[in-house]
Amino acid sequence: MSTHSEKPMTTTAPPVRPQPASTEVPAVPLTTEGYSVLHQMMRFRRTAWRTLPDAARKEIAQEAADVLGQMEKNGEGQSALFSLIGHKGDLMVVHFRKSFADLNQAELKLAGLRLSDYFEPTSSYLSIIELGLYDSTLKIYKELADQGIQTHSDQWKAEIECKLDRHREAMRPRLFPEIPPNRYICFYPMDRKRGEDKNWYTLPIEERARQMSDHGLVGRRYAGEVKQIITGSIGFDDWEWGVDLFADDPLVFKKLIYEMRFDHVSAVYALFGQFYVGVRCPAAGLEKLLGGELPK
């Protein structure tokens, strides 16, 4: 039997070393946002409309034309009326506004018209004009990392916001545009695939930036023929983006979208919703449109 007393074993904790600041590149690209956008698609109840006396139809149409005429010229965003082609609806009204509250006010103003008794909503789409900044994002993230600024720190967020403010000012005409005056519109929503086999959101940001850069080259080739406005709708509606194309010749919609289908990012990762194609109708021509004649 041992008679000497055993000393308790002691351990010394290793010194705590400060961890380096995280400079991992975030997966989410930066964006800048502009006008809030609402598309309203509706069916016109022609049978009920025809039962009204001529004088009542004229009065109701004139009231609506006056209100729509004011909304067409709104300095804080505009509205535009289109006659839809096909069975998905008869009319589509597109609103650009400064905020979602302003969009709701435009919606309520239309709902307050007597003419709204003869409209049946078929669909709608809520989104916000968005400029994706893949190339700028990688440049900004690298600059901040080179400065040793910790990702998502208060300083990092302040630097990001400062750089985005400068971009917003430079891109203001694209973020807060007038609704293009072209005769035809094509609107459709779209997603990027998130399946087990092909998932856009699991690609490295550098690879997404490369693919989007190639994708943009296709659209730029049609710059003189079509005006494109991209809106973001993640968290706002059932799809991730909305696309509005405006042109004086609708054939360009087919050519542009067909060519984009062969682009890698569309061929592999794109999903498309319903397409809506319409003809522009000035507010002053509303009575004629309701009477079955498309204004020129």
Protein model, in words:
- This protein has a domain at about 30-130: 2-Layer Sandwich (Alpha-Beta Plaits), CATH 3.30.70.
- Helices cover about 35% and strands about 25% of the residues.
- It has about 300 residues and is an alpha+beta fold.
- The model is unreliable at about 1-10 and about 15-20 (pLDDT under 50).
- A hairpin with a 6-residue loop joins strand 2 (about 80-85) and strand 3 (about 90-95).
Features:
single chain, 296 residues, alpha+beta, Alpha-Beta Plaits, 9 strands, 24% strand
Short description:
With 296 residues, the protein is α+β, with helices and mostly antiparallel strands. It has helices spanning 46-50, 54-72, 100-111, 134-146, 154-170, 172-175, 205-220, 251-261, 264-269, 286-290, and strands at 31-44, 79-84, 91-97, 119-132, 184-192, 227-232, 241-247, 270-272, 276-280. It is built from ten helices and nine strands.
